[in-house]
Amino acid sequence: MSEQFIQEIQQGYQTKGDSILLGAAMLNGQAHSSAQVKIPLKTLNRHGLIAGATGTGKTKSLQLIAEQLSKASVPCLLMDIKGDLSGIAAAGEMNEKVQERVNLIGLDYTNQGFPVEFLSLSKQPGLRLKATVSEFGPVLISKILGLNDTQSGLMSMIFKFCDDLQLPLLDLKDLIKVLQYVSDEGKAELTKNYGAISTSSTGTILRKVIELQQQGADDFFGEPSFDVNDLIRIDKNGMGMISVLRVTDLQDKPKLFSTFMLCLLAELYATLPEEGDLDRPKLCMFIDEAHLIFNDATGALLEQMETIIKLIRSKGVGIYFITQSPSDIPASILGQLGLKVQHALRAFTAADRKGIKLAAENFPETKWFKPEETLTSLGMGEALITGLNEKGIPTPLVACLMSPPESRMNILKPEELEKITNSSKLAAEYNREIDSVSAYEILNQKLNAKAQMVEEEEIEKSSPSAKRNEKSTLEEILSSPVTKQVARTATQVLTRTLLGALGIGGSTSRKKKNSWF
């Protein structure tokens, strides 16, 4: 029976082109070195999943696959959430357990380190990854913030307003300043040229931007923008560069993590040319603790990510999710994954048993294993595997004794990490502090100039010279033509009245007899 099993595995995992070696097939707890499990490189842009309970070997499987890809000149990007992937830069150490596993699998094994570039979204050691608000655009920003249709339309209007007035949106303080401006001093200007806006809508958007800012997004938005082509590099020895993004401080900031991932995927899709089916991927991305992306993501964000994952395969990019349970991944995305490496699951509760049953139903049927039973009996560093052969047909389900990583299965010391980050050729470019003149500075300058003009006018009005030169209200009334005409008329009437009383002038009637003449 074992011979028939070995023959089936050999046929199912036979490859003519280049491949990566995951380990040796197991049957009834025994590994068979003649039935090695290999996955063709040309199918690794079809994405994948590495799942399993805590402590079952997920991280080491990730490390193994990244090493195999690097040796095949395929660059990788690893999301290091727990901080335990830095050891891939240093050679591992041989011990009895490793030697025993190497012998069982029949490996040509050498301890070695791999070319690594450490990246960061915050102020941790490594190259700083940044992007500008303008590069996100109004549609993506609206999806990240979870805006409704009305608010999304207003966001598009604000971006158009900034484009027309040449107000660069580089970081979040630019976006916040513009939102404050169009809600107050610039509301009339925006309404006149682009249409009426709702102050309540701008207030809601502003609160959501500040919420994103509170999760540390200020460290991500800004300049210089990261060029995704710098992720696709081969070192002088022909090995693919492994970029390790250290995001240990983002476990409690899921919105920022989702923001970064969607931005990166969108940028890769927009930048890389259409490739079709390649002999090997251009880049493979591994997302550890993948549930952080999906837990707090909005429906629009999930829809956008699902679309990109479906399409980015044709750009030569493979995406691999690492999580505890397949149920952590939305079904629409889970259905897109070609390679599945399922480590042991533990059945401690009724919910656990239900999850194991659902996970078992995702595997192809086989007479050699009962997936539901096998999932709970796998040991550390063992996994159920199914992938795609060179024709894109699913391979037979197999229990696999996973190969040990050749690099260090532990973290780097601080001095080792510092040495690698300091020797980076890209550090001088990306770790510069840049604060270009943008919307924040331009609007502040405009508002300050207006305030200064108003202040100067107030000072001029209140100065003594201004008071001397100003006519009083009484003077203005007395000097007016109407007042002068009234005064002339009153004078004439008064004069005639006085002359009449004195008997001078006035009437031409006959004089009295007793006149003193």
Task: Describe what this molecule looks like in 3D.
- This protein is of the alpha/beta class and 517 residues long.
- The protein has two domains: 2-129 and 224-430, 3-Layer(aba) Sandwich (Rossmann fold), CATH 3.40.50; 133-219 and 438-450.
- Helices cover 44% and strands 13% of the residues.
- The chain has helices at residues 2-12, 58-71, 96-105, 133-145, 149-164, 172-183, 187-194, 199-214, 254-271, 291-295, 299-312, 331-334, 350-360, 371-377, 414-422, 427-430, 439-462, 464-469, 473-478, 481-502, and strands at 19-27, 30-40, 48-51, 76-80, 116-120, 127-128, 242-246, 283-288, 317-323, 339-342, 382-386, 398-402.
- The protein has a twelve-stranded mixed sheet, sandwiched between helices.
- A hairpin with a 2-residue loop joins β1 (19-27) and β2 (30-40).
- α4 (133-145) packs antiparallel against α5 (149-164).
- The longest helix is centred in the C-terminal third of the chain and has 24 residues, at 439-462.
